[in-house]
TrEMBL record:
GO molecular function: methyltransferase activity
Entry-linked SUPFAM superfamilies: S-adenosyl-L-methionine-dependent methyltransferases
Assigned protein family: Belongs to the class I-like SAM-binding methyltransferase superfamily.
Example GO BP: methylation
Lineage: Eukaryota, Fungi, Dikarya, Ascomycota, Pezizomycotina
Keyword Repeat: no
Methyltransferase domain location: 101-201
The keyword S-adenosyl-L-methionine appears for this protein: yes
Record's keyword terms, sorted: Methyltransferase, S-adenosyl-L-methionine, Transferase
InterPro entries for the chain: Meroterpenoid_MTases, Methyltransf_25, SAM-dependent_MTases_sf
The protein's name in its UniProt record: Methyltransferase trt5
Length: 283
């Protein structure tokens, strides 16, 4: 297959032209947070997706998955929200100093939704490999002076100087459609890098999100090799990360059996999963 044919085939399998109907929450975010008139939203989103696709042809861009905010209603997000809404010095029992980092933040939609729901923006951080995504996000939401912190950097490069800005600042990490992009050894690097983001003395960090998993853990073959997990293999991965970093972690995974993965390169045993990776106190 010629390069042009391969590209067209990829687009055919991962790109949907029309806006999905079920994006009420994202529309509401643009109306309330960014004050975008409802009549202008469709054109804004179509132009935004065009810019994003020109940067990187991810399925989550082509299939409009980045517009899905329904996942922010799950238990992990609700727990993170409760921890984030009680600032230090408040009347809460803990005087929380929690902060959240969204890894692979795309246009920063999750962080803007948290701000809209009442979280102080200075407690929210985002990072993405592509600085263009961060710029496009600021244009989409029209909030260059939002108070949010965004850093473009490479999570696989332990010496990425840009990412050092986040070191020692984080207690909660959201990572959606991220770990499943990498092979086992790359996931170890990413997990090890995450531990450097944690605030000194943190013993109750949580890393959570959703991605593609599988009932039969394996390294996926094809154009982009990556390792897919069930609960047991993900626990083994974080045991390895913990051994290298002097930390301890407990993994919880739930499968969505109702939806089979329809993205190219995945099989019968592959399913969408939600995961929580909970830091345990040192022994």
């Amino acid at each position: 297959m010629s390069p042009e044919s391969a590209l067209e085939n990829w687009k055919r399998l991962t790109y949907i032209d029309e806006l999905p109907e079920d994006i009420v929450l994202f529309r509401k975010l643009l109306e309330d947070y960014s004050k975008v008139p409802p009549s202008e939203i469709d054109e804004l989103l179509l132009n935004t997706r065009k810019k994003l696709w020109e940067v990187a042809m991810y399925p989550c861009i082509g299939r409009w998955s980045f517009l899905n905010l329904r996942n922010m209603h799950d238990d992990h997000f609700l727990t993170a929200f409760e921890r984030l809404k009680n600032p230090a010095g408040s009347s809460s029992a803990s005087g929380s100093t929690d902060t959240l980092l969204d890894i692979g933040c795309c246009v920063g939609q999750v962080l803007r939704k948290l701000v809209r729901d009442g979280i102080e923006p200075t407690r929210l951080f985002g990072t993405d490999l592509h600085p263009e995504f961060i710029t496009i996000g600021a244009e989409l939401f029209n909030d260059a002076e939002s108070g949010l912190t965004f850093v473009a950097g490479d999570m696989l490069n332990p010496e990425d100087t840009a990412l050092k800005e986040l070191d020692g600042k984080i207690t909660l990490v959201h990572a959606a459609n991220f770990f499943h992009l990498f092979k086992w050894e790359e996931q170890v690097k990413v997990g090890t890098r995450i531990t450097r983001f944690l605030q000194p003395g943190t013993v109750d960090a949580v890393i959570f999100g959703r991605q593609i998993g599988t009932h039969k853990p394996r390294e996926r073959e094809g154009r982009m090799k990556s390792f897919l997990h069930n609960e047991e293999s993900l626990q083994k991965l974080w045991d390895e990360i913990g051994s290298e970093t002097g930390t301890r972690w407990r993994v919880d995974v739930s499968f969505n059996e109702e939806r089979q993965v329809n993205t190219p390169g995945f099989g019968e045993e592959d399913r969408y999963i939600r995961f929580g990776i909970y830091q345990l106190p040192p022994q």
